[in-house]
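User: We ran a pulldown and think these components assemble together. Before we commit to crystallization trials, I'd like a predicted model of the whole complex to look at. Sequences follow.
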Amino acid sequence: MSEDKLSYYITTPIYYVNAKPHLGTAYCTVMADVQARFRRACGMDVKFLTGMDEHGEKVAEAAEKNGFDSPQAWCDSMEPAFADLWKTLEISNDDFIRTTQPRHIAGVQKFLKVLLDRGYIYKDAYDGWYCRPDETYFTETQVRHHEEERVAAGEAPADPEHPLCPDCDRPLERIKEESWFFKLSAFEQTLLDFYEAHPDFIQPETRRNEVLSFVKGGLKDLSISRSTFDWGVPFPFDEKHVAYVWVDALINYITALGYGSDDEAEFDRRWPAQVHVVGKDIIRFHCVIWPALLMAAGLPLPEKVFVHGFLTVRNEETGKIEKMSKSRGNVIAPEEVVELLGVDAYRYYFMSDVVHGTDAPISWSRMRQVYNADLANSWGNLVSRALNMSAKYFDGCAPARPANYDDESPLKEACAGVYDAYAAHMASFDYQDGAADVHAIVAAANLDIENSAPWALAKDPEKADELAFVIWNILEVIRIAAELYAPFMPEISAEVRRRLSLPAEPEGTLEELCRWGGLAGGSPVEKGQALFPRLVD
Ligand code: MSP
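Assistant: Here's a predicted model for the assembly, 537 residues in total across the polymer chains.
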C-alpha cells in the first residue's frame, strides 16, 4: 500500500454459498481479476474484493437439508470450493469477505442505525408478493403486468393464489408480516438526476437504458427486514428482525473497507469504489437499490457498475441458444475447461472471445479454435521459434540490444501506439479489442520472421549485424507482448519473462515497459517446452 498511488477498488458480486462456483461465477470473477491485474500493472494501488453471501432463509434450509448442525457450519464447508477454484484460476483478490464475519455484521448494523437516524426507514405491515427462490419482493402491479404479458403471449393463466415471478416464472407467495421499510420511493428523481449527471455510471449503454426505464416506471418503498427466520444480521434497534439478504449483501462493499469498525481509514481512503462488476441479473440491486441506500446514508456512490451478460450454450437437440444454468442441465464445470486448455488459455478464451456486455455463446469447438489459432499457432509459435533461433545463432543467448535498435523497423512501427490502444480498450472492459491489440503485434512478429528469413541471414557472416537486429526486434516484441498479455495469462507471461532472463516481477509501469528498447539482451534464453501444445480433435 502506498499513499501516493491512485487507489483502484474493484469488486465482484459476493456469490451465494448454496451453489458451488461454476463457469458463470468464474467468468465474472476472472473478468474482475483481469481488470485488477491491468490496473496494478499500470501502477495503481488496487484492492480487489470478492466473497460469499451467507445469510438468508435458503441458506438455513440448505444447512438443515444437508445435515449440518448450523447454517454457519454449512457455509464454512462451502468456503473451500470458492477458495480452491479462485486459486486454480489465478484470481488475485486482496480480500475475501463473508457476510457472517463480525466485521461485516458490525458494518451492516451501523448502516441500519444511520438510515434510522436520517429518517429513511420505518416499520409497517408488509402485504405483498415474494419470490422465495430469488428472495425478491414484487408489487401487485408488477405481478399483474407480468401475468397479462404471459396470457397475451398465449400462455396458460397462473393460479391466482400463486401468480408467477416476473423474473424467473416460479410461483410467488403472498407474504403478510411486520417489516421495516426503506423509503426507496423518495429517491426516484434523485436517482434519475444522478444517472443524467453521470452518463458512465452504468455500462454498457443498453443496461443504462434498462435501468432508466425501470426507475421512470416508479419506485416503491422496499421491505428490508424479515422476522420469520433468524439467519441474518439482527436489526440493532429491533432484534426480532433480521436484515433482508440483499441489503445485508450490498453493504459488503463498504464493510470490507472497515466501515463500522474502530478504524475507518481504509474506507475513507478507498470509498467510493471505482467499479462493481456484476451480471445482468442483479442490475436493479446494484444500479437502483444500492445507490439509493448510499444516498440515504449520506455516502458517495461508486463510480461505475459494469454489467456483463450471461454465458449461453447451444442446445444440440433444438439448436436453440440457452442460458447456461444448473436447472437446464447444460453447465460445464470450470475444471473440465481447465483440463482441456490449461488455466491461462481458459482465462484467455473467456476474456478475449466473449463480448462482455451481451449474452455470449460459448462452445467446446470455439474454445479449441481460439486456442489453436491465437495461442498455439500464433503466440506460442512465435515464442518457440524466436527463442529457438536466438539460442541457435547467439550461443544460447539473446543478442545484445544493437546500437541502432531505435532505427525504423516494421516491428517498432507495429508496437508504436500499442499501449495506448490496449490501455483504452482494457480500461473500458473491451477485452476483446485489448487482446486483439496484442495479437496484432504478435502476428506482425510472426510475419517478420517469414519476411526477414533469419535462417538465410545466419548463413552469411557479413549479415551478422542484420541478423542480430532482426532477432532482437522479434524478442523485443515478445517482451512487450508478454507484459500486455499478463492480465489475461499471468503464468505464461511469467514463464516468457523467465525464458528471456527478465526479472520475475516487472520493473516499472506497463506504459514504461511497453516503450521500445527495453530488452538489454545478452543474457541466456531458454527454448523450453511448447507453451501451448496444439490441440488435436
Ligand atoms: N449473492 C448475490 C449477489 C450479491 S452482491 C452484493 C448473487 N449471487 S449469485 O451466486 O447468484 O451470483 C450471481 C452472479 O454470478 C451474476 O451476477 C453473474 O455475475 C454470475 N453468473 C451466474 N450465472 C451466470 C452465467 N450463466 N453467465 C455469466 N455469469 C453468471 O446474485
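The radius of gyration is 27 Å. That may be worth checking against your pulldown data before setting up trials.

User: Thanks, that helps.
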